[in-house]
C-alpha cells in the first residue's frame, strides 16, 4: 500500500461493465459494475464522488472503491454529474443531476443486470462533496433513497463557506455566500435540511485536513436531536482519502457500515 493517501485517486482499476446515460449531457452518465460471483440480488449502491464539486475531479477516482464494493456482492453505479468550471455545473445543474441520477439509475442498472439488482431505493455512498450531494438527495427525495453512507461529508455548506474549504469551493458551487444567496443554502445545505428520514451513517477521520471532523460531529448531534437516524463513526488515525481506499486500514469500517445499512433493507 502506498504511503501517500492520495495514491488511490490515480490507482488503476478494472474497467466498468457498462456505462449508461441517465440524461442527455455527456457528464450525465454512470459506470455500472456487476457484483462479483453468484449471490442474491441486492439493492443498487450508488457512489457519489467528491472533489469539492470541481471539474478536475471525476468519478474515475472512485473506481477502486466501486470495484471493492462489487467484490462484496453489491451492484454498483458510479454516478457522474456536471461540476463547477464546466457548462451547466454549479447551481443548479450539479444538484439537479444528482437527483436525476439517483432517480434513474436503479432502473437502468436493473435493465443491465436484471438478476443482480433488487427492487427498492438504492443506498448512496458519498465522499466529501459527494457526501453533501448524497445527503441532499436523501433529504429532497426521501422515498428514493434507502440509506446514506457519508464519508467525510461536507455536511454544513454555510460553515464550509466560512472556513473557505478548498479556497472558495462552496461559493463556486452556489454562486456566493449564505448572506448573498440564502435560498440556495436553505435548499441544499444538509445541516439546514434536518431532519432527514433515511438512515445515515457518517464516517470521518480525526486527521482529516480537507473537511474537519468537527463538521460531522456537529451534524450528527444536530441530526439526532432533530429525530434523524444518524450514527457517527470517528476514526482516530484516519485522514480524508483513506475512506475511499479499499487497501487502507479504514476499509473494514467502511464495509461494516455499509453492511449495517443494507441488512435492514429488504432485498439487500
UniProtKB/TrEMBL annotation:
* Any one GO MF annotation of this record: hydrolase activity
Mind telling me which InterPro entries this protein's record contains?
AB_hydrolase_fold, BD-FAE-like_dom, GDXG_lipolytic_enzyme
Q: Which UniProt keywords apply?
A: Hydrolase
Residues in BD-FAE-like domain copies? 31-221
Top-rank taxon, per record? Bacteria
Task: Tell me any Pfam family this protein matches.
Answer: BD-FAE
- Protein's UniProt name: Lipase
The record lists the organism as Salinispora arenicola
